[in-house]
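Notes from hallway chat w/ T.B., transcribed later so I don't forget. T.B. wanted the structure written out for a chain they're using in a teaching module, and asked if we could keep both sequence and structure tokens in one place. Agreed to drop them here.
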Amino acid sequence: MRILARIERILLEQRGHLFPWTPVFMAVGIGGFFLLKTEPEWPVYLGICAVAVLCAGLALRWPGGWSAVFWALALVALGFTLAGGRAHRMTAPVLDWRYYGPIEGRIVGMDRSASDAVRLTLDRVVLKDVSPARRPARVRISLHGLRSFLTVAPGQRVMTTGHLSPPQGPVEPGGFDFRRHAWFQGLGAVGYTRNPVLLAAPARDGQAGLAVFGMRMTASARVQAVLQGDVGGFAAAVTTGDRSGVSQDALGALRASNLAHLLAISGLHMGLLAAFVFGALRIGLALIPPLVLRIPAKKIAAVGALAAAAAYLALSGGNVATERAFVMVAVALCALLVDRRALSLRAVAMAALIVLALRPEALMGPGFQMSFAATTALVAVFGWMRDGQISFGPNWLKPVLGVVISSAVAGAATAPVGAAHFNTLAHYGLFANLASVPLMGVLVIPAAVVAACLAPLGLEFIGLWVMGLGLQWILGVAHFAADMDGAQGHIVGPGPAVLPILALGFLWLMLWQGRARLIGLAPVVVALLLWAQTERPVVLIADSGGLVGVMTNQGRALSKPRGAGFVAGNWLENDGDGVTQDRAAQRWPGAEGRLRHVAMDGIDVVHVIGKRAAAAFDTCTAGQIVISSVPMVLTGPCDHYDPKRLRKTGSLAVSQGKIITARDASGTRLWNSPPRRSARRFAFRDP
């Protein structure tokens, strides 16, 4: 009983500081839903809802220290239920075979792929000989071999002939699951075409969502007409969210210098925009003394900044990252309207709650994790400095130190998350951000606002020219930092438990009050030790059977120098290996043409590539693992995986003599075994 009383007293001491924990416990429930190997049945949801109601009732009936525990359990149950409801609400047909033939649909999205090809997202899809009940709600096709895409526009109904296939599963067991990502985006198939895209019907008026999309693309084209090359593409990305004008060279430099976050319309851009509009309105009202003495100037400025942020959200396309940024800014501005502190851990928690309630799947993505890691760390650190009355020195030095501390804190908070998801570390990222981020606030974003204000007069080129000067500097810094020796380091991907444990430790350090917050250092140390001891699979096998990778003393050796480049790149990145696919292929022991064989650590792997090699290899022995890129029949007691079998198992990993399949690692969930008939399309009603 003394222990229970002690726990209750500790919880009572934390009263007033527990609200920031609410999104944490909701995230635990959401994470638990995505960790399941089987899809919960409806009785499970009913039981969890009952637990949530019971815990909330107990918390209200017996307020006190233990009520916090009941609220925590209720939030966990709520997060689980929200994630399950969202997953079921996104149910729509998914293509479960490879399709080649006519494709017709309405353009609702345009962007570029990693290979720099233009991509179109289509809805109202029509496929030859495919019934409406089996047609995907949306498909995304890459346009290869086409020099211009200026003939296509939002809202047009287009047709072409191309290839479609189901969204790909993890490139290795436990890896990033694109099928889950596509499920929540509503993509039922992805593919490409090398044929012309023809106009089936022009865009119709009166479609609000597509009208905004059309405005975005028109604005992007105007920006790129005034500013040429990568500067214009960068400006279009910052103002409209259209990143199709940024070259792969510029994108690579921005990533290597840790400046790629400036491309995405995120919390930085939204915050700078709102701050500039808020400050400009307050100064403008202050210049009219008779007026400013009679009206709440600060609240009017907050409303104006909120309206500007909402317009920016609409113009930028309203993607997940921008929605998240808008929610955070809106919470801060609404706090000003009710005379509360705009930047506090409670405000950050409220923003996180709203985002998780609307899009629970965002928790699993690097965007949510990095943005809230940076924001929480910044608010916590500056809060500690404020409470500790730590001085920044003379007034002229405060802005400089503020930028340095902000960049250092945000970089430290996001570095583990970025390294875990992208397996890279930008060694000169702090320098690049210090030289670039201030310019975004004092020149680029204000110039963009000026350009938007002058656009109705046809004078937007004035603001865009000033904006281009700042973006030229940022691109120059990116290329300079990226070209420095050792600019980018590579790190092995962590196990699935590392990031949650690391997050728990840092959250405890930032949210718990008192000396006991130092307990959070223990999970951080444990997570880093687990990360340092990460062991990669000895053998990796692509789900198509077209690529095999084995771990050698020099690093992972690949069975082919070309082909399956996306899979090869992901394997090498997760290994923390920065070499190219052709270099990794040179590590393969021996040269045996299209019959690739390797024996190591008691594992005998044979990769049969193509029909000729399959015809020449028809007998195998016990203990062999044979992977073929084409269907084939083998005699012998080996373990054989051909494309047909791999379609059922997904990618494979061999570690410590055990074969692990992607299906075993992912389980049987909605997104990897979706219903094929009478699928409901709640999320894709016509605008």
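Follow-up for T.B.: DSSP finds 24 helices and 17 strands in the chain. Might be a good example for the class.
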